[in-house]
Structures are given as structure tokens and as C-alpha cells.
Design brief:
alpha/beta; Rossmann fold; 4-stranded parallel sheet; 6 strands
């Protein structure tokens, strides 16, 4: 019997060593890609997802590019405006992803302003549903925790927000070494993110605009301290989401966002649901620069945003 236990212990040690070795390999190419394919985990290391997507935008906030105006926002903002970057060299167009939440947009604005002292305007463009995005178990860790821990910028968030993130994702998983351990391996990403979905709940705010009230207002105050004009505009919304936008009105009336931009919800422009297959982004024949230009002209005509833009055809 003693020999059996010794053999079992030896087997467990060998198995553990093999698993550790495989995990070690999963963080290094070419084994990283091979093991990701073998374990059906390739989607977890996609270049357009999470920290791999966001860190380049953060890096751009540091560029000494001579820009004096900043556009930030969600992926619809990015879809509409990114093609105009080449003809608007005075503007940093850094629309990224709704997964950042308003907290992440605050960090983007802060980093830009710190490195661009001559900034005159900051524009935040987000769908209403992006503006009320919370720290969920689908995208929150990938878009709020990982990129900002890895760039040492999560510290700019309020202590109560860090406590909230710790509660949702686990304090240990806000540690740089642990984040990097998860980030470098598709297998580790898959295991942790699926564990989150199974055993954790996202943060449920007391008011739908709670996070936006806190961090959009911080952007507003930060701009005000620097004599920078702050502008908040909605991105166009599919008609399929019209009822959800209307459902925000009660909380909006009590929010700080209303103090900054009282017409925000009234400015929402709705487009036919057929123009978006995912209910959020323009797709098919509607996903082209000419359509984006026309949308911008129709939606933002007469605003400060429209006044600073030049279009490729002009």
C-alpha cells in the first residue's frame, strides 16, 4: 500500500510538472499559437481583442504628434472617424472600444492631456449603451484591467473603483505578474475568463449612469482645470435599440451627465436596423467611408465637432 501511495505521488508530481511545462510553452511562440489551436483557444489571443487592441491606443496618447484635439470613444466612434485621421492631422482620433467603460476613457483622456499641454478640445463619442457600460465578466477584465495594469495606469482610478474591480475579478488578478501570466497564454486567458463567467458576477451599479457620472465628470473637470473644452456626443444607434435608449431617460435625468450635456439623449440619431447585422456597427454596403462621411455631416452639423473636421473629398 505504501508503494502505491509513493507511485501515486510520483505520478502527480510528473503530471504537475508536465502541465507547468505545457503552460510555460503556451506563453512562447511558436508553441503559443500551436497550443492555442490545439486547445481551441485562438480567439483569446486575437490581435483585435483586449490589451492587444487597447495598448496601441494608449501608446498613441504619448506621441508628440502636434495634435491639439482629441477624439475618444467606443468602436462605433472608431468606425466612423478613423478614416479621417490622414486629413485631420491636428486631431488625435483614438476611438477604441466600449469595453473600456467610462473609467478607461478617463485614463485615455488623462494620458493624452499629460502629454499634449496645448490641447484645446476633448471629444467623447459613445453610444448610450457604451456610456453606461459596467465592469462585467465578459469584457471588463480584458479591456479595463489588463491593458491598464500592464501600462501602470490603473492607479489613476479612484480607490473605490479599484476595490470594485478587486471584488469582481479578484485582488490577486489585478497584480501585474498575474495579469501578464494570463495575458501571454491563450490557455490561461481561456481558463480565467471562463472561470469568471461561471463563478463571478459583474458589478451592478446603483444607477445606470453611476460609472459615467464618476468618470465622464472627472474628464470634464480635468479639462476645465486645463482650460480645455470638453464635448460629449452620442454615436448613431440602430432602431432596434431605440427602446433601450428610451429606458435610460429616467436615470439620465438624475445624472451628472445631464449637467455636462443636457441634450445627449435627445441628440441620438437612429438608423434602419437593416444597416447593422450586430445591432451596433454598420455592416455590408453601409460600412464604407462615404457613408461614414455623410453620417457625420448629417448628425453633427452645427456642432463644434463638425467645425474642426476636414473630409477626404474636400
Amino acid at each position: 500500500m505504501k508503494k502505491f501511495y509513493l507511485n501515486a505521488l510520483l505520478f502527480m508530481l510528473v503530471l504537475s510538472s508536465m502541465l507547468i511545462f505545457v503552460d510555460f510553452l503556451s506563453m512562447r511562440e511558436p508553441a503559443r499559437t500551436f497550443l492555442a489551436e490545439l486547445t481551441d483557444s485562438t480567439e483569446y489571443i486575437a490581435q483585435n481583442r483586449g490589451p492587444d487592441e487597447i495598448k496601441p491606443y494608449l501608446e498613441r496618447t504619448h506621441y508628440p504628434d502636434g495634435t491639439t484635439k482629441l477624439i475618444i470613444g467606443d468602436s462605433v466612434c472608431r468606425q466612423l472617424f478613423s478614416h479621417l485621421q490622414s486629413t485631420n492631422t491636428h486631431i488625435a482620433m483614438l476611438g477604441s472600444n466600449a469595453g473600456l467603460t467610462a473609467a478607461g476613457q478617463y485614463i485615455m483622456a488623462k494620458e493624452y492631456l499629460e502629454h499634449h499641454p496645448d490641447t484645446t478640445d476633448v471629444f467623447l463619442l459613445m453610444l448610450p449603451k457604451s456610456l453606461v457600460r459596467t465592469f462585467d465578466t465578459n469584457w471588463g477584465y480584458l479591456y479595463v484591467v489588463m491593458p491598464f495594469v500592464e501600462t501602470d495606469t490603473l492607479k489613476y482610478l479612484d480607490e473605490e473603483t479599484i476595490d470594485c474591480l478587486s471584488e469582481v475579478y479578484g485582488e490577486l488578478f489585478l497584480n501585474l505578474q498575474v495579469v501578464q501570466f494570463i495575458d501571454r497564454s491563450a490557455i490561461n486567458r481561456k481558463l480565467y475568463l471562463n472561470m469568471l463567467k461561471e463563478h463571478s458576477e459583474g458589478y451592478i451599479p446603483s444607477n445606470q449612469f453611476e460609472i459615467a457620472d464618476q468618470y465622464v465628470y472627472k474628464i470634464y473637470e480635468m479639462c476645465k482645470e486645463r482650460n480645455v473644452a470638453f464635448h460629449l456626443y452620442p454615436c448613431p444607434v440602430s432602431e432596434a435599440s431605440a427602446e433601450k435608449v428610451q429606458a435610460l431617460k429616467s436615470d439620465f435625468e438624475k445624472s451628472k451627465i445631464r449637467e455636462i450635456s443636457p441634450d445627449y439623449l435627445d441628440m441620438v440619431t437612429y438608423y434602419p436596423a437593416e444597416e447593422s447585422k450586430d445591432g451596433t456597427h454598420f455592416t455590408g454596403k453601409y460600412a464604407n467611408d462615404n457613408n461614414y462621411d455623410q453620417l457625420i455631416k448629417d448628425i453633427y452639423a452645427g456642432t463644434e465637432l463638425y467645425d474642426i473636421l476636414s473630409f477626404n473629398a474636400e
